[in-house]
Structure formats: structure tokens, C-alpha cells
Prior knowledge:
The chain is of the alpha/beta class. The chain has 19 helices and 17 strands. α10 links the parallel β5 and β6.
Amino acid sequence: MPKVSIDDNFFDIGCDSIIAIKFQIEALNENIDISYGDIFKYPTIRMLSENKNTEQNNLALSVDKDYDYTRLNNILLKNKQNNNWNLSENRVLLLGSTGFLGAHILDSYFSNNPDNTLYCIVRKKGLLEPSERLKKTLNYYFGNKYDDYFTKNKIVILDGDICEKNWGLSLAQFKDLMNHIDIIINSAALVKHYGDYETFSKINIEGTKNISHICKKYSKKLYHISTLSVSGMKTNTKNSENQIFDETSLYINQELDNVYIYTKFEAEKCILEEIENGLNATILRVGNLTNRFSDGMFQINVHENAFVNRLKAIIHLKAIQRSFSNHLIELTPVDSCADAIIKITNAYHTFSVLHIVNTNYISCKKLINYINNANYHIKPMSDKNFSSRVEKYLSTDNLKNSITGIITDLNKNKTLNYITNVTLKADITNTFLNRLEFHWPILDDLYFKKYFAFFKKINYFTKNEED
């Protein structure tokens, strides 16, 4: 561009999330401490320099501190009670079936309910019709396993949009659908961590409100897929003591530092408000989804996964801070997660929130051993040496783009800070899942051999984004 004004919006002039990372890299090279999130919050040079935000975004991304959480907390506290439950066979509408988790929920549903029909609402995208979109997704993950389910009407596809009235269906279609389903699993969401608030709000908040309204009006049970990221990494409290975030928690003064986490938090709040007003719903907070336990298969759009991109950057850097050695890492295989969800949806219960997370954690030290066993060589080092190594990579043209996966996590000292004062708990959920005869897998040598075999097959950890 011949000229860029200090009042030009970064994204309006053609930049995107990838260029934002490159912008942050160049700022770091000049020792200018601009966080990745700030580029989205303050999208002009003037706003970045003055550290001010637009009035709209200030209102959008700040938690309402005056909101009275008492009523919602009372609903959440009921999760501590011994919930009575019994098995039930439900007819299901699945939203978000073309996503990584959604496709595996579909697979687990048919594994547990082979004679049933599953209804899916899918939007047309580009030149792909809804049925083609879903079939393409299922072919990637499961081969031709489900091809004849479309012709036999075991998978019924409706062209619709969760944000529209009656989901964009004709009144006849909509009423017919309501007559054929008992529960709705909402796995539809915009899951990128940064971007325009209005876009995220439309899908993650307004879309959820629309689904909740329909479920309440037509007496359908709602299972809403949320994320454990709503717990935040840090809390805005004066003391540094750990804060417990379990199935009875919602707001613990946590920092909700990007639009994805903020809008998922607000969506949960909307659902809990409706539960108080008669909605039958359960929020399922999902952990860090990773490769299938069965065979190591991972998601289609690998480059969009933040955890994998962090791993890729560390592998390229060949270094990790020694201070992370005993840090525990949570990995929730997507097929195990989907199985847990279907176990829960096949039971009648009164839980309002459950945590779907593999609590068989592994230490960072153990993960590094698995990485090194896969012939990637990572060396633990002091914070000072790690920082020097990062500086070297940032200042070298043919190296800096290889570590973009950790750029958003670097502090002003060019070191990583993944230590959190929020402790996640899933004791209530695990007790319930154990009663349903579900147990989380232990991730062992065999799992990580399959895990790294997948990434070697697609040559992901050894190539740069621009290759």
C-alpha cells in the first residue's frame, strides 16, 4: 500500500490472523510488547499506542461485574447432589456435525444406537451442498463407512442455519423435525480464538439463544457443547492461591481474554438463565481435543489447532523451558470424548454442567520423552537460554515463521508462561461416567506412537506454514 494511516483498521486493509502473528513477530524484534489479542482489540496504530479500545469492543468483551450470579450459582450447586438417573433411548438432532467433535459424536451415536436415525442441520458452503459437506467430512474420518446411511435415510440432512428463525427451515420441515427428535446436541460454534466480536457473537451467543428458545418452546432436552477454556488461565484476584473450577463454577473472576472464550462464557450464562426459567439443558465443557485414541487420526484443519501449533513451534525450536518439567498436560482423545458425550445423552439425569475431560494427565517431562522417542529432539533449558534461542529465531528470516505457534504466548522477556492459578476439577462428572461404565483412557507409549505417526504421515512438524 502506498500509505497506511495510524487510523486505518488493520483488518479492513486486508490483514488477517496469520498476518497479525507476523506483525507481532516484527514488533517483538523491535522489543515492542504487543500481545496477539491486542491487535484484535485495538486494530489501529493510534489505538495500539494509546492502549484504548472502541466503545463497542469495550462493552463487548468486559464481564458484567455487577451481574448477580447468585441464581445461577444455586443451579450449579445442585450438581453436587446425588442425581438420580436411568438409561433412555433418545432420537437426536446433531448441530455442528461437520466439525471435528461433531463428526465423532455422529460415529459414537451410531455405534451405541445402530438402529436409530440421526438428524443433522448443515449449511451449504461455497459450491458444496449440505449432504456433500457432511459426506466429505465423514469420508475423511471414517472412509465409506457411512455412505449408504444417506441413501437409507439413517442420516437425514436439513439445509439450515442455527441463527435464523426456525433454523431457516420451512414451517412444515421444522414441525416435522420437532416431531422426530427428543434431544438436541449443539456442537456448532466458531472456535477460532481471535477475530471480530460481531461474527463470534452471532454464532456463539445469538445462535445458542435461538437453540435454547426452540428447545424450551418444544420441550426438547439440550446438550450444549462448551469448552473448559471458560475457566480462564488466570483470575483477577489479589491473592495468588489456586482457584477451583469445577461443575459448580461459572464466574470466579477469571480473565476471559479473547472473543472465543468470552462468547462461550456468555452462551453458558444464557443457558443457565433459561434453565432457571424451565429449559431442560446440560452444558458439556470439553477439554483439549486431540488425536483419536483408536488410531491417532486428527482433525482435517490441523493448522487451526492451537495446541498442535505450539508443539510444532517447540519441535522447530528444539527447546523447552526446564521450569515446565512437572507441569501437567491434559489431552482428551476426540473419540473418547464423543463416547463420553453419547453415554451421557443416553441417560436421563438432572446435571446442568459436566466436564468432559481426560483427567489422566501426563507431565510435560513425559511428553517431551515421547516427542524425543519420535525422533524430534527437544532440549530442556533455563528461561534465559530459552529466551536467547527465541530471539535468535525471531531475528532470522528463514527461522522466525517456524515458531509462529508460540508467538502469541511469549511475554516481554520472550519466555512462555503456561502456569495457571486455575485448577480444573471433574470429580462429579467422572463419578457419573464411571456409573455409566465409561472410563478415560491412559495415554501410553502405543498412543503416542500412533499420535506422532499421524503427523509424520502429513509431514506437519517438519515443514513451515509457507512450505
